[in-house]
Amino acid sequence: MDSWALLYFSVMVVIATAVQTITGFALGLILVALCTAFGVMSVIDCAAIVSLVSMMNAGLLLRRSYRDLNGHVVMAIMLGLIPTLLLGFYWLDQVGRDQVSLLRTIIGAMVLVAGMTLMLRPSPYSSLSAKPFFIGSGLIGGLFGGLFSAAGAPIAYLMYRQPLAISVIRSSLLAVFFLSTFVRAVTGGFAGHYTSDVLIKTLIAAPVMLVTTMLIEPTLPAIPDQVVRRLVFLCLMALGLYLLLAP
User: Fold this and answer.
1) Is the sign of the CA dihedral 189, 32, 93, 195 positive or negative?
2) Which of 39, 76, 177, 191 is 20 to 30 A from 84 via CA?
């Protein structure tokens, strides 16, 4: 990777980390989508890097907010997530290298769905959803977590409809992403995805992510929620359409 490619990759990490820090999800999805759209690296390599970077990002954010998470909800989601995460990982590892155009289409569609999900403002449920709903969101999210280390959209949509404080929702999402990326990173290690090149890029991405998180985190209370949603929505729509329509 030459110096310009490293610069582009670092900018992509900043963008993805900023969105994750503000919204509580989408670091993996945005980083994989950007790398795929601009051909910076393969989906397999990018997903491997995302697993480690997302795990560090979630761990950093949880260091102050872990007391807010809902353990019962987190464990229910993980119960559904882990089996399909392993399934998605296996599919990517076995046939993903030969299905680049299909992967690009799937990522583009996921980005569009994530953008629309972010703009939806459904009223919260009157009571907490039953356990099977959380397991179901984990099943769906886990598949994409295994493929792209991007399990967020379906889980985040369900979580933001719960009658819970925003701090509880955000911390619970971060806990899910920390655990899911940990499982994926360990699986990737056993599968040999962490080559020297991937580890070097991770070492580049990690400090960029850490600095971005520490700079943005203190400003969260001052950032208007609707402004953020609209800006991220426009970016995701443009990125998703590019992935779907570009030759």
Assistant:
1) negative
2) 39
